[in-house]
Design brief:
The chain is an alpha+beta fold and about 200 residues long. It folds into two domains: about 130 residues, Sandwich (Jelly Rolls); about 50 residues. The protein is built from eight helices and eight strands. The strands form two sheets. Strands 1-8-3-6 form a four-stranded antiparallel sheet. The protein has a four-stranded antiparallel sheet with strand order 2-7-4-5. The chain is globular and about 55 Å long. The model has no long low-confidence stretch (mean pLDDT about 90).
């Protein structure tokens, strides 16, 4: 699938949010990338696999999750205009302890690790872009850990609404409750309490 004109603008804007990228620079990136159209509930990374792709989401939504004792635990959601990967596995080329799966039908830009390495040489700005992406992911991971230590489930849900305003009505509730670390039944009660307070 070719990169259509309607996708070039959000791609350019996303890169320019980190560092200035010219149209010529963008052509290097898009030449190294492939556009994928992926059905919902497709696993892009299985447990124990080495993550070999970095994605940029053009449309759709994905989740990154852990699996322990046959229970899924969501740890991050990716939506439009975000870079997406199991970053530890991708950057270190080691087996992943996370699973990456589409929640919705998704269109994304995909770059392999080998092509990524070539872009480092062809496009010096890529070093800055990747560093800033990893800084963001590290900060997100720190915030999530801190939230579980310091905040209640209700506070975590209010943070979720603030962090993912576009996703609260797109993601199934059982995925949100998994992210919050509570059961779907507890999540339903939590939402009920919040609704009652607004009356």
């Amino acid at each position: 699938m070719d990169i259509g004109q309607k996708y070039l603008e959000p791609i350019l804007k996303a890169f320019n949010d980190y560092v200035h990228v010219s149209i010529e620079d963008l052509s290097i990136i898009t030449r190294r990338a492939t556009v994928l159209k992926i059905p919902k509930k497709t696993k892009l990374l299985e447990l124990g696999q080495v993550c070999n792709h970095m994605y940029f989401i053009l449309s759709g939504c994905l989740r990154l999750y852990y699996l322990k004792d046959d229970k899924e635990r969501n740890c991050f959601f990716f939506h439009e205009n975000l870079f997406c990967s199991a970053f530890g596995s991708f950057m270190m080329q080691r087996p992943s302890n996370q699973i990456l799966e589409t929640i919705e039908d998704t269109i994304c830009l995909s770059v392999t690790f080998a092509e990524f390495e070539k872009m480092y040489e062809e496009l010096p700005a890529m070093n800055i872009i990747v560093r800033k992406i990893l800084e963001e992911r590290y900060t997100n991971a720190h915030d999530i850990i801190s939230s579980f230590i310091l905040h209640s489930a209700e506070e975590r849900y209010l943070e979720f609404i603030e962090k993912y305003p576009l996703l609260t009505n797109r993601i199934p509730e059982y995925h949100i409750s998994s992210y919050l670390g509570i059961t779907p039944k507890s999540f339903s009660r939590l939402k009920g309490r919040l609704r009652n307070r607004k009356r």
